[in-house]
Amino acid sequence: MRSTLQFGRFNYPWRGDRVRARVMGILNVTPDSFSDGGQHQSLEFAISHAEQMILDGVDIIDVGGESSRPGAPPLPLAQELQRVMPVLYALRDQGPAISVDTYKPEVMREAIIAGVDMINDINGFRAPGAIAAVRDSDCGLCIMHMQSDPQHMQLAPSYSDVVAEVTAFLRERIEALTAAGIDPRRLCIDPGFGFGKTVEHNYALLKATGQLIAELGVPLLAGLSRKSMVGAVTGKPVEQRMAGSVGGALAAVAQGALIVRVHDVAETVDALKVWQAGTNLQR
Ligand code: 7PJ
């Protein structure tokens, strides 16, 4: 039975009665978004944000240097390394698991040297060299589905059956990774909310959480924090989507998601604690 997710220094049961849903906190290291003080200031800001997430009870910190919001241009390799690597080294021994959000094989290799526990690839390890970069490590691998690429994905998302197509994509990537000799216990899957999907596609996938897990036999990570699918239902702008995002995280966990990727760590941790105390989660 493959009933634990094994990644880096960590081991999470994801089937049976010892399951506890985990919170992945989003740490964006993108200087443009909050400061004009350049490299040093963005490092300081990232570290203090991470320290707060640790106080708030985060399980995994997901460090990303490239904005993958719709229409965003790609970030050159050297800049991504410059942003992300100092943060990975600074956070490696602070307690939580460390993940890096990247689709570049060169960043994956450097991050593995720095000792990250997980690589979170919005591109599903499709880049040439991505599988080779991660094969001989023990880090976890989050395989996300994306239609098209960040610059074009929201122009005209189109599926004849979104759940079937995302399932088939994830199955193919699981097979590609395991065919290269990668232990399936290192893998988790992610339907990729907002990545080449309309609001209807996103909710069809959220409702299919249990089906994706059952069909693919791999734990699932759900990332819908502050996304437009939350705004579409609540009518709220991005800065007022916290409660809606917590509701979405609970909907995913109720259907068997193991990890939720969120901006609002404290609120999500509290919601999951009460959720867990008030339910008998059996999967
Ligand atoms: C996701 C991600 C997601 C995973 C981003 C944002 C956009 N990685 N990276 N899943 N989203 N695995 O956070 O709004 O949904 S960047």
From TrEMBL:
Record's signal peptide: none
Residue stretches making up the Pterin-binding domain: 21-273
EC class name: transferase
Keywords: Folate biosynthesis, Magnesium, Metal-binding, Transferase
Cofactor(s), by name: Mg(2+)
Pathway: Cofactor biosynthesis; tetrahydrofolate biosynthesis; 7,8-dihydrofolate from 2-amino-4-hydroxy-6-hydroxymethyl-7,8-dihydropteridine diphosphate and 4-aminobenzoate: step 1/2
Catalytic activity: (7,8-dihydropterin-6-yl)methyl diphosphate + 4-aminobenzoate = 7,8-dihydropteroate + diphosphate
GO MF: dihydropteroate synthase activity; metal ion binding
Biological processes annotated in GO: folic acid biosynthetic process; tetrahydrofolate biosynthetic process
Recorded GO CC terms: cytosol
Pfam family, one: Pterin_bind
E.C. number(s) listed in UniProt: 2.5.1.15
Domain of life: Bacteria
CDD domains linked: DHPS
InterPro entries in alphabetical order: DHP_synth-like, DHP_synth_dom, Pterin-binding_dom
Function: Catalyzes the condensation of para-aminobenzoate (pABA) with 6-hydroxymethyl-7,8-dihydropterin diphosphate (DHPt-PP) to form 7,8-dihydropteroate (H2Pte), the immediate precursor of folate derivatives.
Entry's family note: Belongs to the DHPS family.
Protein name: Dihydropteroate synthase
Gene: folP
